[in-house]
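Forum > Structural Biology > Help requests

Title: Can anyone predict the 3D structure of Phosphoribulokinase?

Hi all, first post here. I have the sequence for Phosphoribulokinase but no way to get a structure on my laptop. I'd be grateful if someone could post the structure tokens.
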Amino acid sequence: MKKKDLIEQLVSEIDSGRIRTLGIYGHGASGKSTFAQELYQSLDSTTVNLLETDPYITSERHLVVPKETPNQKVTACLAVAHELASLQRDILALQAGMDVLTIEEPWKASEVLSGAKPILIVEGMSVGFLPKEFFDKTICFYTDEETELKRRLARDTTVRNRDTKFILASQQMRRMQYLQYYKETESRADILIDQSDDKFQIKTKII
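Reply #1:
Sure, ran it for you. Structure tokens for Phosphoribulokinase below:
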């Protein structure tokens, strides 16, 4: 199944009411945000909210360290780096029909998500740490280290104004923490997608 086919299937499931809340997650630069945007653009914008979870990653990560590797900073691969209680509150608010003001980021202004919209797509690493009962379906993305680094360099230097040297220096640590702390979340997804070598391969049976 190609990406286009999966998007068409998801649109059909959303239009028929089988999916009202969809969770999309994966490690950094795995391709989840691009997919979420493509799906969002394929839907009626008057009926769907896209809640991006990057703003729920705390900026105070320097206050804690991984127990097994105390010399490393905490990346978003650890649950402790996420404001999960706040994210759950906002998801429940939208599901209950209440408006939510999103958190401003340096590269994106805050906006109001309307609780009147019946469909909710939640996208970002934080989704992997949330109870699966929040979602009607979950999709997880992953990719190989080389592809991840290539995408991170292209995105973070242009969109997020990050330094190339910092990205290169932190890549090994990020990948190690992904394997140690985040990879296990992949087994809980309804659909697992491998985007290694910039390909699109579905690794689990479509539910």
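Helices lie at 3-15, 32-41, 84-95, 145-158, 164-182. The chain has a mean pLDDT of 89.
Shout if anything looks off.
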